[in-house]
Amino acid sequence: MAILSNKNQQNPQAEMSFMGHLEALRWHLVRAAAVIMAICIVAFFYSDRLFKDVVLAPTSQSFPTYDMLCKVGKVFHAEESTCITVDSTKKLQTLGASEQFSTYVWICMLAGIILGFPYLLYELWKFVRPALKSSEAKPVRGFVLVGSVLFLTGTLFGYFILFPLSYNFLIKFQISPEHIETNNTLDDYISLLSTMALVTGLVFELPILVYFLSRIGILTPKFMRKYRKHAVVILLILAAVITPSPDWLSQMIVFIPLFLLYEISIFVSANVVKKYNLEQ
User: Fold this and answer.
1) Which residue in 216, 269, 258 sits closest to 235, CA to CA?
2) What is the pTM of this model?
3) CB 3.0 to 4.6 Å from 108: which of 43, 127, 187, 263, for a disulfide?
């Protein structure tokens, strides 16, 4: 009895009920939410710098992406489509009395979500860790670090590459200039920026997702290699949708990182299958 008691003390979640697991998960999420909210509050005090140096930076010609894209375009003789000229004289418009305030709050929350995402992963890892054996936990010990790096890399890719390409194409696209005028609103700008940043951050978590799907036998490297050509077509279509600009170079700039993620995911899946002697 003493031995059993000691085992339960070492692993208190081993005999936890379903409701007990939900309660534990709730407190992990509460702590993560508290950290995210704390970062939001800090962002409030630095909101001027946050808006000027980060959020509105792509509206200036000095944004580093534009110079980089232009240099890449010159190498491939496609500078006409990649050398973006920003009209800094046009201001973003607001169409409602509360729009600037709601945008102010949302950007601070967005900063909290992005910067607090690593801690969210950490809390999720703390929740899952007691249910894993030592042999199972060791290979995924770097889950928090790898997941955080992938998410932040994806977010930066969305901010520095996807958003400038998409936004500048969309605001300059015109159906009938003599009849229709595009009003460049703050709401549209922030909506596209936040969507690009968050979605690409989550997309870059693909290797992590593939690891766990391979671990439970749902996905195999053989399957991913077999349908590689199909994946390439899907990624090309996705790149074309994400970057509405018709030039091939902009689409390749988006496609190449996505394809590399797919290849890395195949390597991850193959490593899992080999390590755990799973059937391919």
Assistant:
1) 258
2) 0.88
3) 43
- 93 φ, ψ to 5°? -105, 150
Angle at 80 between CA 74 and CA 86, to 5 degrees: 105
Identify the CA nearest to 30 among candidates 109, 118, 117, 120: 120
Which residue pairs, CB below 8 angstroms and at least 24 apart, start in 7-13? 11/130, 12/130, 13/130, 13/131
Q: Residue 142 has which token pair? A: 């770097």
Residue the block writes with tokens 């200036």: 60
3-state secondary structure of 94: coil
pLDDT in tens, the chain (280 residues): 333 344 444 455 445 677 887 888 899 999 999 999 999 999 999 999 999 999 999 999 999 999 999 999 999 888 877 888 998 878 899 988 899 999 999 999 999 999 999 999 999 998 888 877 776 677 777 889 999 999 999 999 999 999 998 898 888 888 888 888 888 899 999 999 999 999 999 999 999 999 999 988 899 999 999 999 999 999 999 888 888 777 788 889 999 999 999 999 999 999 998 887 776 5
What lies within 8 Å, CB to CB, of 108 at 6+ separation is 40, 41, 43, 44, 47, 50
**Encoded amino acid at 278, one letter:** L
